[in-house]
Amino acid sequence: MSLIEFVKSKVFWKNIGLMALVFTGILIIAFIGLNFYTRHSSEYIMPNIEGSFVDQIDQMPEMDNFELIVMDSIYTPGEHAGKIISQDPKAEAKIKKGRKIYVVVTSSKGENIPMPNCKDQSVRSAVNQLTNVGLRVGKFIFNIGDFNNVVVGQRYKGNPIEEGSEIQRGEEVDLVVEMNQERYTTDMPNIIGLTEPEAEKKLWEASLNVGKKQYEGKKDIVHSKVISFSPNNSSITKGTTISIIFMNDTKPRYKEKIKGFKMSAPIVEEESPTNQIIDEFEESF
């Protein structure tokens, strides 16, 4: 049989058809296997679990496809233990089944930690040293001198505390700050819309004390945001105590309150701020 006759024969075309079917079948199996391997059909939207408690996660059907991993715990005064304050991946992210969800939660008790060294550092650096290990700033005590905005002492419950001394996480440490007589004011940071820890750190970095706090709606470390503070002058004396009002950002009036906030112009003080700071420093001894 010649080649031309073979090509025209039914046997040839039958074999071609079988080969095409086998090739198509292999492609289909490969695509199905690849899809199963990469689990394209098992992507889920990450729910928002910030503000929830770890022991509630098992009761959330939308979390059945994920594994929760507690990465760290932070002592937060006034908060119950086990509240989730941050998550990774964030809410609304598309993730696959079986993904590990890493969270940071609140702890009920601060463990003992070594006191960091805040001396001979700028206020911003000292504040970072304290907050990074879970400590808080109690108040600023000012000392007029040659340097400006330099921490020269650290105190716990009125007494000096040395680097390495044991202190419980969450406690307050007072910072003694040296400043020259010509730099006694600071720009007031705009803390509107920040959470309580974020707002406190901003104020401390500006050498301002945190005063009375009020809460509208349920107090929540994740959802309680600043809607107002006083005084709210754009320029303010270092060491001024700032009162803050928080509102839970789930309340309908939250965005309206933030939108209506306006910073005030600086107040012209009758008494010299420098003398006031010196008086406060002398009274602290």
Round the mean pLDDT to the nearest integer and report it: 83
Biggest sheet, in brief?
Answer: 5 strands, mixed
Q: Level of helix content? A: 10-25%
How much β-strand is present in the residues? 25-35%
Question: What does this 3D model show about the protein?
Answer:
The structure is a single chain. This protein has 285 residues and is α+β, with helices and mostly antiparallel strands. It has three domains: 66 residues, Trypsin Inhibitor V, Chain A (2-Layer Sandwich); 74 residues, Trypsin Inhibitor V, Chain A, CATH 3.30.10; 84 residues, Trypsin Inhibitor V, Chain A. The chain has six helices and 17 strands. Strands 7, 8, 9, 10 and 12 form a five-stranded mixed beta sheet that branches. A three-stranded mixed beta sheet has the order 2-5-3, with no helix packed on it. A three-stranded mixed beta sheet has the order 14-17-15. The protein is elongated and about 110 Å long. The chain starts with a helix and ends with a helix. The C terminus is likely disordered.
Give structural attributes:
17 strands; 5-stranded mixed beta sheet; alpha+beta; 285 residues; 3-stranded mixed beta sheet; disordered C terminus; Trypsin Inhibitor V, Chain A; 3 domains
